[in-house]
Amino acid sequence: MPYRLAxxxxxxxxxxxxxxxxxxxxxxxxxxxxPPALVEPCILASTRRDGVxxxxxxxxGTTGMVARDLGRRYVGVDLNADYLKLSLDTxxxxxxLDLGAIA
Length: 103
Fold this sequence. Notes:
two-stranded parallel sheet; 27% helix; 3 helices; Rossmann fold; alpha+beta
């Protein structure tokens, strides 16, 4: 089921083109960290539970953290080994790599 917001009348509504989200600091100092609230509706709208989320610019691992919390599997790629280490040491520290068959 796509991610929906309730309108004033209680009926479901899609998110609009402008999203107001509070910033959230990240002590790892990755320069392009964004809040988990930005990722969550995108993952909910585009995947099912146990689905796979691919992030080709993994950075600090925010997308992976949110995907894991929502019951999705995650594949993250980043050219910078320091950012991969940062994500594994912080946001993805409890994540297990599950490469099982995709249904």
